Amino acid sequence: MRISFAQKLIFSYVFVILASFSFIAFFLSRNLEANSLQNIQSSLITQAGLIENRIPLERLKQEDIPYLEALAKEFSGKTSCRITIIKTTGRVLADSETPESQIQRMENHLYRPEVKTALTGAVGVDKRYSSTLKINMLYIALPLKDKNEITGILRLALPLESVRKTLFALRRTVFTGLFFALALAFILASLITGRTVQTIKRMIRVSRRFSEGDFSHKMIDLPADEIGELASTLNKMASDLEDKIKQIKAQNQKLSAVFNSMIEGIIVVDKDLRIVSINPEIEKLFNILKRESEGKIFLEVIRNNDIFEILSSVLNEGKAKSGEISLIAVERRVFEVNATPILDNKSAAGCLVVIHDITEIRRLETVRSDFVANVSHELKTPLTSIKGFVETLLEGALDDRENNRKFLMIIHDHAERLDKLVNDLLSLSHLESKEITLKRSDFNLKEQFDEIISGFRAQSKKKAIDIKNELPSSLQVTADRDRIEQVITNLVDNAIKFNKEKGLVRIYSEEIKGRIKVTVEDSGIGIPVKDIPRIFERFYRVDKARSRELGGTGLGLSIVKHIIELHNGSTGVESAEGFGSKFWFTLPQ
Question: How confident is the model at residue 550 (pLDDT cuts 50, 70, 90)?
Fold first, then answer.
């Protein structure tokens, strides 16, 4: 059973009053009873002394029972006491409550306590139950003397019923007062407690609002006591908490913004390897949802043993750890995993994992490595040939009229190849620097294609390749004419070089969302699927031996891509091995 604070306070007031009154009533009753008995006893002794002087000793010695009986009844009527005259042998001579005819049958009183005391010459006093009258009595026994000789005993007995009634009336008065005092105490305690509890209830209501995060309500009209001081402290605590919560919310918002906007994937797990939180990048990377992942064991959500082993190692050793993993979805991607323990009292209470996509970095490293290897190879081949033929000429072939001109022509061709390679490299470097300024002008794209195609007539006739320019005659673009000429030249050159005998080159366009898409389609050897993603890289060749044989530097398509991107356009290729290729680019209309 739940007892409220108000009930406890009221009951405490009532209990204190009850205990106090009970204590007072108990001692008051005891003292009143003792004082009453003492007063009655003194009064009986006084009355006994007066009656003693009225009893003739001669009649006592003569045992004049009728006289003594009449005398006892007379004094009994005046004193309202029971008067008994006893001989020193204990035999009763007269008793005011017993008829004269029955006096002889009364028992001997010699061994009554008060009688025994009186026979010693002192006043005997005793309180006991009377078997004759069936009530409690107070007995006073006084020795009757004749010149220092005890001749009899005068005993006065007073019923204690009156004392009991007096004490009962007193106790009733005390208990009545106690009842009214308790009722008054209950009313006063209820009023005082009601005001106190009302303030406490207000504090409870406001505190509940505080616990729910509502700090707008404060306690006012506070009493000038300890409860008021407590309420003021709660108000101050609420204000401090509100400020702290605002600071924490602001910090959490900043952290959440950083957490959610990071391009790296972030996972937080506890010491039991249960996911505490993940950011949107992890959701996209592993195709999972944050709300369905939090609270679950890591391997239930992300089935990757490499990351799991790194997490387990960090939690066990309490030290940061890094690693590199590969994931294959649509394409292979490389990630760097950095795991750091979240320490609590020097022990790992969790782990923070940052997953950084380094696919592009690794790709660029590969491209750079390939570029260095390719450019070295491209430079070394003609230089080796030039050096060899120069040494041949120096060793005497210079005087060989039949071959010296042939050797010089070979050296000239390789020098031309080096020059072209260096020029392409410089051009590509210039394009990649983004420092180039385009000289935009309006011109007819079909006419420009026709001019460039006419320059490839000899080359196309040699392989019997038919070139069809299906661009609209009215197709106008705004672009850098010289740069677009490089693009067209490279695309048409490749379409002829890598085409089949009696093949076809078809050039056409279409309008897509405000852009002009131009496609150069050939019926050549095509490109394997695995090579398509890298076809626009520098020095990348599908068939390296054939490309060098045809005189290509491997930089043409890379130059095409950079020129088109400078025009805010895009490039692409569609091809199937053995079924030709479609190279296209777009320009703003």
Answer: very low
